[in-house]
Specification:
It holds the Pfam family RHH_8. InterPro entries: Arc_rbn_hlx_hlx, RHH_8, Ribbon_hlx_hlx. This is CopG family transcriptional regulator. The protein is α/β, with parallel strands linked by helices. It has two domains: 33 residues, no CATH class; 74 residues, no CATH class. 42% of the residues lie in helices and 21% in strands. The protein contains six helices and three strands, in the order H-H-H-E-H-E-H-E-H. It has a three-stranded parallel beta sheet with strand order 1-2-3, with helices on one face. Strand 2, helix 5 and strand 3 form a beta-alpha-beta unit. The two termini are 18 Å apart. The model has no long low-confidence stretch (mean pLDDT 91).
Amino acid sequence: MSDKVVPLRERGGDSEKITINLGYVDLGRIDLLVQEGFFSNRTDFIRTAIRSQLRQQSDEVARSVDRHMLEVGLLELNSARLEAARAAGEMLQVKVVGLVRIAADVTPELALQTIGSLTVLGALQASPKIKAALAERIN
């Protein structure tokens, strides 16, 4: 699978929105840093803090990726790729840290015939029908 996973840029247009709850004092401290010009806005502060933590934990992340045999980056699965897997008699065990996109041309039947398991630490972009079909195979 690794030859088909494209490395993702650390910064880019594709992103996933998350929501966090902060205490008023922490939020006020962030606003103070923004006001003083250390960060352009709250989002800039939060992204910077997250990236800093990820850099500090990079060795642990790398060991976990290796231990769990995960691919890192973007994996796009379209009907041509899944048809080739079906023709070869392969059942894909997908394990990705990043983004998995299952194309709109993939039918639920084809997905069920070719995707044995799906582990995505990050984001899965697929139609509701595909997600429903694979629900029992998504970890």
